[in-house]
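Notebook entry, structure prediction.
Reason for the run: the old model in the group folder had no record of what sequence produced it. Starting over properly, with the input documented here first.
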Amino acid sequence: MIPSVLPTYNRAPLAFEKGEGSWLTTVDGARYLDLGAGIAVNALGHANPDLVAALTAQAGNLWHVSNLYQIPQQQKLADMLVEHTFADTVFFTNSGTEAAELAIKMARKYWYEKGAPERIEILTFDGAFHGRSTGAIAAAGSEKMVKGFGPLMPGFKSLPFGDHDALRAALTNKVAAVMVEPIQGEGGIRVLPDACLKGLRDLCDETGALMILDEVQCGVGRSGKLFAHEWSGITPDIMMVAKGIGGGFPLGAVLATENAASGMVAGSHGSTYGGNPLGCAVGAKVLEIVADPAFLAEVNRKSSLFRQGLEGLVASHPDVYEAVRGAGLILGLKCKAANTDVVKANYAQNLLTVPAADNVIRLLPALNITDEDIAEALTRLDKAATAVAATTP
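New structure, fully documented this time:
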């Protein structure tokens, strides 16, 4: 008999009822140190008092009116994002998947309005993850995501990760845009080198193709910059944002230059809930905190502290761990043992980590995790690795 909740998740046997900072408490009172942050969503930890205050203050006034009307909270957050980024304009969504759908539409509409409707192809890369809508799975193209779901939306071509020759050959006059994650999250915390991002920007400029960056998982301070592409010194034409921008409230956005967004006019896209007063009030508080240079400096300091400890773990447990990946506080441990076994061993240490492709476990703590909690996390990761090594043939 099918459960009342559609069984599309392999859930751990854990149910939480309270959170505070980097800690979660189960319904039976056990405390877990959270290095997943709701898959990079709870950027400022659980029950952050500043976010709670922003949410409750707005909830006492107005929740939803729809985009038939002006929404001051939405305008405020859009202005903040424009001030702090490359973007000239912002559209708010409820999720990263919805942001991907708009980014695809925006790129194709751009070329249609420019008189080149044949430029519909969007280039993506192996290991990519852009969401689970029919458009987003077609963009990623992996068999795991598309098998059984019928004919895929046409107009996408997936290329080998990091293959510049393949990219250059694929950039024909049929290409509307190139879509890429500066740091692949689901794909195994694979960082696209700065030189590759710069080269990609140059190729897009040469061919006219728009550059779409997916910073749903690696954005909003997680890399140590407000957005990960800032490390390379380039700017995209369109960028997808979600997860951390709402600090736990469902919120996403598409940021774009005036040129890239020029095809999107009244009636060309919409969202019932996107940019609602509640979400934007929280998002504005998140951005106010995370965009502070002093806050980002702390993210980088904590990243160095955490990474140094992780490198020590790899050296101490060569049969379990192979390498440390990532940047800022979007880190991964490439495993030699099965990553699912490592995640389960971490559960036994009351520690939450997230599996990813390429036999990696993701470490995505709150950006304001304390030094004490980092030290505790390293201790528990060490104990879990010892347990895995003892049971590995």
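Summary: The mean pLDDT is 96.
The old model has been moved to the deprecated folder.
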